[in-house]
Amino acid sequence: MRSFGKGWPRGGGEIGELLRHPAFEAVGLGPAESWPASLKHIAEMVLNSRQPKFVAWGPDLSFLYNDAYVPVFPERHPAALGRPFREVWADIWEQFSPIVASTLSGSPQLFEELRIPMRRDGRTEDTWFTFSYTPLRDDDGTIAGILCATLDVTDQVAAKRGEKLALEELRAKSEALAVVNRAGAAITVEPDVERLTQIVVDAGVTLTGAEFGAFFYNVDDGGGGSYMLYALSGVDRKNFEKFPMPRNTKVFSPTFDGEGIVRSDDILLDPRYGQSAPHFGMPKGHLPVRSYLAVPVKSRDGSVIGGLFFGHAEPGRFSQAAEASLVSLAGQSAVAIDNIRLFRAAKVEIDQRRDMEDQLRKLNEMLEVRVAAEIAERQQAEAALQQAQKMESIGKLTGGVAHDFNNLLQVISGNLQLLGKDVAENGRAKERIANALVAVERGSRLASQLLAFGRRQPLEPKVINIGRLVTGMDDMLRRALGEEIEVETVVSGGLWNTFADPVQIENALLNLAINSRDAMDGAGRLTIEVGNAFLDDSYSRTHPEVKAGQYVVLAVTDTGSGMTEAVKEQAFEPFFSTKPEGKGTGLGLSMVYGFVKQSGGHVKIYSQAGRGTTVKLYLARSFRSEDRVTAADTVPATGGTETILVAEDDEGVRTTVVEMLSDLGYYVLKAKDAQSALTVVESGAHIDLLFTDVVMPGSLKSPELARMARARLPDIAVLYTSGYTEDSIVHGGRLDPGLELLSKPYTREELARKIRHVLATRPQAGRAAADAARPNSKPAGPRHAETAGKLKLLLVEDDAFIRMDTAEILQDLGYDVIEAESGEAGADILGHTVVDIVVVDLGLPGMPGSAFAARAREALPSVGLVFATGDSDLPVANRLSGSVLLTKPFNSAALERAVKTALQQRP
Prior knowledge:
Residues 346-391 form a coiled coil. With 907 residues, the chain is of the alpha/beta class. It is elongated and about 170 Å long.
């Protein structure tokens, strides 16, 4: 996974700003920058989601949510951020406690339209939510939290409930209407007023034999109120449609006031009629009939809603039977009118219901689409997250392997180089050593690729224009790929700059090109494209490790065999290869993947079997101007006479590097861990340079050791070494500013050059002070005792081979050496012999070396003391004044310096 810097989280709106605030701390989790990587990835995905989501993480289930979730509980925000779940939702914890417990046991939960009595605005109200709970796992695979995606469906549930009540009411009305319909005549089921009028009038004409009939109604139907419809015998009906109601005719007032039936056997004159043209040949002032009968039509509540009017051209034509028939017909008409009103009301409700159904259906469809999209997006994001976590775990494993591997390579390489000096005259032996060193170099490249995949290599990024870099590689690529591969390079205009390690970009492009060559069986077309790209929020949501924004994209396309989906899924995994055995390590794409991820970028493969492959590398855009890329200064690979403290936990590596440095002429102190190195620093010994491994056991870490060493020795130089830097001195994919690192394995020449470079870059005052403090600043090389005569030296060493070799060296240096195999034997010698200096091993059996030295100083107060040891943790209290610590293994130069220093410092 990518590194998380101080700017984490990326984006996240208002909540993201709150998490980035220096004062923010989540209960049980601390500040956001200290959270585990697994939580950071899922939290960043949630913060940048547009759907209401939250994460509850850790032993207290610290509550973390996004901006979209704030409307769910606006009165609890922002106090709820980072607080325990149980505290945030205390009012509904009893309801949710079993759901939370089930999820934390590993069971995903899904609830649709769950009723939740929630406290809002100081009161409890019913709300409904559709939501899912997904268990989340930490870096070790243990369930550590819950992811919730939710949707407030209170309004939709309320709409459904209202629709149900409306339908029930309509159904009751329809049932009542059916009863009325079955009880009435056929006309009572006619829903059309005009049609009903025609039926009623026709029925009246049939009953009475009248040649002229009319039905008046005054129903609130939205059409303007009262109408008159006529049924005529032998007269054109259209001449009388919508004739004004005779309510304005006084003679009909009793009917329309509901007082009773109005009947006339001989029409009365009315000045209102006949003012223009005569009606049906009648004289002016006459109605268009001579006899008439008007019957009121009443609704169920007794109000007059209309009337039946039947007229005849002849007077006195309506009998009592006809009148009775019309009264009966009026009753049926009233039922019909009421039914019509119910029908119309029902129609309005039906239309409303249909509108509601359409809206609800559309809402459901939209909701289903949104839910399906969210589920698909979440599944894709979860799959991407699982893949990222898988690659992170493999990266940690390979990084650890590389660390141990590099230590082994350093031991092998160092000893081979030292051995090379001993067999300088043996040509065959030198050739074999050279072959072995080539194998070490191959192993080193393999370890470097593992570190690249594990995103543990220290990068040296610069602001560069990839277009110029790729164009400059054109000739090298053509030579590497061969004449049968056609190479085309396309660089877009207006190309942005990016911030990345140019050397690693070259390595990545070369790896991709060689993979393409192999996929094309040595013949085909390779296209290299460089351009600008934008990855939007939708892409980022389905790729949680990708930050939306502007990128520079480097794409490599071939016409080779392509990849299947199964191969694509494993393509970035280390040691996965489709090539025949012995044709590849399976680390090329892994290295590319690790480098891009460590640089904060994104890598994507587009491929189909038989249709070629495109690999795209996305590197974030930089708005700074391009850096000038220059070759590193070449420092001569020479030695020196400074004092170097080596802190290295691996015994083999420590022994080798101490010998290499001693061989270069340096005076070397050694320590097995940071705490032991600090003890050496605090002893007051002069130290010019601290050469420390980055990864060592113990509570004191190398960066802290360096800080404490500088506090005590301001002029000390510091050089780190490691085969696996973790994140202690590498942050954001690059070495921390001002630090120097020598990666394992390294050669003697690389070590010599780096040591001189680090020492040369110390402040001038510091170097002058160091030179003045050194007891001997003569150039490295063979030394001889500068004494007037031979000095007596007592060598106390229990190991026979070490004692014999050391005695021989000391004798060659001009000392008169007396040997003792134990402290007891040395004490016997001191009983009868005066010596000038004692060289004693600290780890003697029986009498310890420190006890023997104390006895020697007691017997000979001015004797010089040299403690020889494989450790550097001799307590200061056990060190006698003027004593010198000589770390094993040592060479002749180191031994000579130690003895001379002890002579100069003796009381």
